[in-house]
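We emphasize that the prediction below concerns an isolated chain of 130 residues; any contacts that depend on oligomerization or on bound cofactors are therefore not represented. The input was used exactly as deposited, without trimming of termini.
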Amino acid sequence: MSIFGSILSKIFPGAKAAEAPAAPAPTAAAPADAPAPVVAAPPPAIALGDVAAVLDGMPGASNLNWRTSIVDLMKLLGLDSSLDARKQLAAELSYGEDTSDSAKMNIWLHRQVMTKLAANGGTVPAELRD
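Result of the prediction step, given as a token string:
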């Protein structure tokens, strides 16, 4: 299971992360004036619930700053929050920057995780996604 999949299932047991749509199969070269092929959008996510309320209700939430820290979020969920685990999550979420700048990576990871939770049907306050 992916690290994001583990995060999602710890918050909403039984939920599965939406898979990215498959790339269309290559076809014969289209004329230059032909319209771009339409790629099907992923199916809409099923509403799961209020992410902040679920996390705030977990044991130990009051001792961790999960709202801004990917490390604390992973700790709250009982997941490995080591640098290696966060680098794996960064690769999974297509982080395109240098992972040696862990502070920058951590901020990006937290926003991406919250954005992906929302994309998968969780209700996430805007301030946690942006």
